[in-house]
Amino acid sequence: MDETLLRSLTPGVLGILVRRGAEFAAAEDAVQDALVEALRVWPADPPRDPKGWLVTVAWRKFLDATRAEAARRRREEAVADEPVPDAVAVDDTLHLYFLCAHPSLTPSSAVALTLRAVGGLTTRQIAQAYLVPEATMAQRISRAKRTVSRVRFDQPGDVATVLRVLYLVFNEGYSGDVDLAAEAIRLTRQLAAVIDHPEVAGLLALMLLHHARRASRTAADGSLVPLAEQDRARWDTRLIAEGVEILQAALARDQLGEFQAQAAIAALHADAPTAAETDWVQIVEWYDELVRLTGSPVVRLNRAVAVGEADGARAGLAELAQLDPGLPRYPAVAAYLHERDGDLSRAAVLYAEAARQAPTLAERDHLVRQAARLNARG
Amino acid sequence: MAKYLLLKHYRGAPAPVNNVPMDQWTRDEFSAHVQYMRDFANRLEATGEFAGELALAPEGTWVRYDGEGRPPVTDGPFAETKDLIAGWMVIDVDSYDRALELAGELSAAPGADGKPIHEWLELRPLLTEPPTVGE
């Protein structure tokens, strides 16, 4: 039984049901029922056309659940007997991505609904991945379904909101038995297959380039390994090559967006044989593009680090002086640049302050170690 | 999507506005208080923002290692003035502002005379896993 195949078929099947006029929440329930049926029946009796089989069974489940009046049912069954054109199926999948990332949803609802409806994960798996009780996640998903049930399905969606949701899924990391990063890559690949958009390619490239470094980002004891100290032999060169190729094709189309720019920075890191040989000058140029595209103060902070590497710690500190000290991770960046500038006691104080503000356990521990290294007796 | 811990204190926080000890409330006042908390948790489950809660017994004991082969030291039997935690709730929300809003709502649980107790709650972000894109 190929569960990956089953899950990759889910959005298309759901999209077809919704397109045929099934209300979203009811359609989603029907597709889940059909998936359960497939898991039961397929091992002994695999269908010739898995997707057609799922559509037929899901539509029957939907009709069973909603048979209110005989006339309506006859009408719906007449529709069900019509063959499903393939060209429309592609479009249906795409619409489903837009629907699940609809701006009327909160980010966490959009993420949950995308994983459920497009990704085909179970509510339990999603709940485990996000470390909340299953009942809470079930409610989050059903509220999201109710919200988008009022959305007209024939309107084109906004690619940027879909990409933001997939980026959030990717960034959530690896808790529970579901690998959210791998799931985000799978969904972005699937999206890239149905839509020709340079930023979709940019996001996919960014994910592949970061995923390639995954094994080297943490030590055996779970502690963070900074980029400069990572064992580059453990980077996945196949993923890097794929990411770079996808990125180059996207950049060639000359419609730069923030994901392409971020991927370009990741590619320059991935391309350097050693940390010392990193092309920081080019990285600063890409940060300039990112600042232009986003105006984000966090991007400016990262840019200050890159300037510190390209032009020396003093130049980095000069950039930093123009930014708001209240920015997240400001003290960490300041500590790093002051250490590079030789002011060790100031750096130690700043590392300790950064540790108190760290949002993650691994980052906190890493910053405490940095402070301890500079403060160590003897 | 960030988790916050709401800590309820028996002691250690500033005195709340409506500061009448629970054992001096009427039964109805107490029931209304409990119902408010239950409704609050149920509503958060429905919005997908509930992550967990537990109530704790009032008295705890400080314990520490006292050297090889010796039993651990405790702070008893005499009572100490120490911070005590009554219970906790964990919420999973989209923003810090939403966390503040919910903490404010929980703090408004009814007490004596059916009026809000204005309880002080400590709001603490939970440390999480590092994001995948972070370099």
Automatic annotation (TrEMBL), chain B:
Belongs to the YciI family. Residues 28-106 form the YCII-related domain. InterPro entries: Dimeric_a/b-barrel (IPR011008), YCII (IPR005545). It holds the Pfam family YCII. The lineage of its organism: Bacteria, Bacillati, Actinomycetota, Actinomycetes, Pseudonocardiales. This is YCII-related domain-containing protein.
